[in-house]
Amino acid sequence: MAGRLGHDEAYERNKQIERQLKDERKKFKDKVRNTMRLVLVGAGESGKSTIVKQMKILHKGGFPDEERQARIPEIRSNVHDAILTIAGVMNTLNSPIELENPELKSALDYILDEASAPNFELNEQFYDATTALWADGGIQSCYSRSNEYQLIDCAKYFLDSLDRVRKREYVPTDQDILRCRVMTTGVLVTEFQIKNVRFHLLDVGGQREERIKWLQLFSDVTAMLFVVAASSYDMTLREENKNRLSEALDLYKSIWNHKYLRYTSMVLFLNKQDILAEKIKSGRTKLGDYFKDYQVFSKKSMIPDEIQSDLRELQPGCCGLSPHKDSIKKITAYEPEGLTNHQRAEFFRVKMYIKAQFEEISTSKSEDQKFRKNCYPHFTCAVDTENIKHVFDSCRDMIQRLHLASTGIVQ
After folding, report:
1. Beta bridge partners of 197
2. From CA 335, how far away is CA 349, in angstroms rounded?
3. Residue 94: what are its φ and ψ, rounded to 5°?
4. pTM value?
5. Which residues fall within 8 angstroms of residue 20, CB to CB, at 6 or more apart?
6. What is the 3-state secondary structure (H, E, C) of the chain?
7. Cβ atoms < 10 Å from Cβ of 277
8. How far is Cα 309 from Cα 341, in angstroms, rounded to an integer?
9. What does each of the 411 residues of the chain score in pLDDT, given as a tens digit?
10. In Å, what is the CA distance from 397 to each residue of 72, 92, 223?
């Protein structure tokens, strides 16, 4: 009798363990089913980390006080690097630039001699010298030629904000943190949840020496988010004298055709539309000077009827804004302020050309690639929270469908 009880107890314990294991397996499957694994890739300085910061703002309650404090030295370091870079290249450009105000020579010497020393600590003299130099016409002229040398994108933003950034009680705003440039090394994972769906967003360094780490992330990926600096058409890499947009195209092609990603779709973020618009507005550099086939493309490309009608209505010398801005915004996804109608038409052609270059890679599929994956392009401005919210919301359902298909839940 006792043996029979022992056998029954063991049987019940075994059944209980099986039920627990079954429950755990179900929980694990549910977690996998409801977790989207996204990997951000792209060349260096394309804006990947800025998109991660936007996810923190939109879905993780923003930046806590301790993170804002931790960003202060990084932001001030951006100020230091920016003025040091601009001042340092004035005499090295093909057509050297001199200070407009010769009386600022001592301030320039201070920046180049003392402020360039290792472990230099920013002080009031540094901030005074930087403020005076940034207001000088020669420095501004040198800044306008920043595509000819390596300068961080946030240089103007923080140099314009110097009076605020230098204060002892300074606390970075969301926009300050979004603009702050710190090179990503290694792999950074950000987790957030939207309507009971978990997202794991992996940010990896885009510099060439960092790309060797990408391979380990290519398994069990829901989608790759490839970020391109669309404004980089007139810039060269830090590593070598190669056009940055050409490098992005080559990198995209290598990832699109990677054997481990043959079933993984790509979300393409054509980023830095704000900087691209500023370059179109300034007219200093032309896309056709760097990509010769653009001239042929621009003649064939279709301009929306709204822009065409605006151009027909313009008189010589007129630079009024279009009354159809809302409708154009739907087409271009990001419509900057302050462009003339001619500039808006050129902005449209340029961004469509860049988009077409990546789509050509995505649609040139071999037979074994057909119907296996797709490219989903979006125009983005990573420092614009509303733009990123709109873009991510629009592609979130698509990402979830891709995930369900990859897990075999739907075909």
Report:
1. 194
2. 13
3. -55, -40
4. 0.83
5. none
6. CHHHHHHHHHHHHHHHHHHHHHHHHHHHHHHHHCEEEEEEECCCCCCHHHHHHHHHHHHCCCCCHHHHHHHHHHHHHHHHHHHHHHHHHCCCCCCCCCCCCHHHHHHHHHHHHCCCCCCCCCCHHHHHHHHHHHCCHHHHHHHHCHHHCCCCCCHHHHHHCHHHHCCCCCCCCHHHHHHCCCCCCCEEEEEEEECCEEEEEEEECCCHHHHHHCHHHCCCCCEEEEEEEHHHHHCECCCCCCEHHHHHHHHHHHHHCCHHHCCCCEEEEEECHHHHHHHHHHCCCCHHHCCCCHHHHHHHCCCCHHHHHHHHHCCCCCCCCCCCHHHHHHHHCCCCCCCCHHHHHHHHHHHHHHHHHHHHHHHCCCCCCCCCCCEEEEECCCCCHHHHHHHHHHHHHHHHHHHHHHCCCCC
7. 26
8. 10
9. 555 556 666 667 666 766 665 555 545 455 555 688 888 998 889 999 999 999 999 999 999 999 999 999 999 999 999 999 999 999 999 999 999 999 999 999 999 999 999 999 999 999 999 999 999 999 999 999 999 999 999 999 999 999 999 999 999 999 999 999 998 777 888 999 988 889 999 888 756 666 666 666 667 788 889 999 999 999 999 888 899 999 999 999 998 988 888 888 899 999 999 999 999 999 999 999 999 999 888 877 666 555 555 544 443 333 333 334 444 444 445 667 889 989 999 999 999 999 999 999 998 765 555 546 889 999 999 999 999 999 999 888 888 776 666 555 444
10. 37, 51, 12
Structure tokens at 22: 């079954």
Cα(114)–Cα(402) distance, integer angstroms:
55
| Tokens read off for 395 | 């592609």
Residues 6+ apart with CB under 8 A from 250: none
Nearest CA to 131 among 104, 159, 106, 152? 159
Q: Answer whether 243's CB lies under 8 Å from 235's CB.
A: yes
Q: List residues with catalytic annotation.
A: 45, 50, 181, 203, 207
Are residues 177 and 45 in contact, defined by beta-carbon separation less than 8 angstroms? no
State the angle between helix axes of 244-256 and 341-363 in degrees (0 to 180), rounded to the nearest 10: 30
Rounded to whole angstroms, the Cα distance separating 333 from 380 reads: 8
